[in-house]
């Protein structure tokens, strides 16, 4: 896929009916800049392809690079979840994911959408050029909920969850 084709995909995502949301919310351009600078600094074309940066409610940022490995290395978004916990940050409000050595804002993959939704269900994702703010819940309509199949899953899947069976 060409760079132009990828940009077109990101642009088409940004042009979806999320624009009302994008207009109503501020774009965190500092976070975008940080993610792009990280990508341009740390993209190595081999093991670390995608950069991500996330904003905590107190203004701190958490950054991460993807880890390529044949066992299924984690995407940058998942690296951030662990890195945030290492700083005792358990809430993130906004995330931006950057590909192509910092040239494009890309949407999280399906696996990351589920993980981000589970950990930070109110998180916004910045996607496209120009960037749009898209809530993670809109990126993952009808999300999988483990407790719908196994109530014990509430405590074992990670993330911020209310136990729907509490008190029953
Ligand atoms: Zn991913």
UniProtKB/TrEMBL annotation:
Write down the CDD domains for this protein, in alphabetical order.
cytidine_deaminase (cd01283)
Do the record's keywords include Hydrolase?
yes
Q: Which InterPro entries match?
A: APOBEC/CMP_deaminase_Zn-bd, CMP_dCMP_dom, Cyt/Deoxycyt_deaminase, Cytidine_deaminase-like
One cellular component term (GO) for this entry is: cytosol
A GO term, aspect molecular function: identical protein binding
Q: Give the keywords, sorted.
A: Hydrolase, Metal-binding, Zinc
Please list the residue ranges annotated as the CMP/dCMP-type deaminase domain.
Answer: 26-147
Signal peptide feature range: none
Against SUPFAM superfamilies, the record matches this protein to: Cytidine deaminase-like (SSF53927)
* Segments traversing the membrane: none
The UniProt entry's GO biological process terms, in alphabetical order, are:
nucleobase-containing small molecule metabolic process; pyrimidine-containing compound metabolic process
Similarity comment text for this entry: Belongs to the cytidine and deoxycytidylate deaminase family.
PANTHER family assigned to the protein according to its UniProt record, in alphabetical order: CYTIDINE DEAMINASE
Q: Could you tell me what this protein is called?
A: Cytidine deaminase
């Amino acid at each position: 896929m060409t760079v132009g084709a990828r940009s077109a995909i990101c642009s088409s995502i940004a042009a979806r009916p999320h624009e009302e949301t994008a207009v109503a919310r501020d774009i965190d351009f500092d976070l975008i800049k940080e993610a792009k600078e990280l990508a341009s600094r740390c993209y190595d074309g081999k093991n670390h392809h995608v950069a991500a940066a996330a904003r905590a409610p107190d203004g701190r940022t958490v950054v991460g690079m993807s880890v390529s490995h044949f066992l299924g290395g984690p995407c940058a978004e998942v690296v951030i979840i662990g890195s945030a916990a290492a700083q005792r940050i358990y809430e993130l409000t906004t995330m931006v994911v950057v590909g192509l050595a910092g040239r494009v804002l890309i949407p999280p993959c399906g696996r990351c959408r589920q993980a981000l939704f589970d950990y930070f269900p109110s998180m916004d994702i910045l996607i496209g050029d120009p960037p749009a703010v898209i809530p993670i819940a809109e990126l993952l309509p009808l999300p999988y909920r483990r407790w719908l199949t196994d109530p014990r899953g509430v405590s074992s899947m990670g993330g911020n969850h209310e136990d729907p069976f509490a008190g029953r």
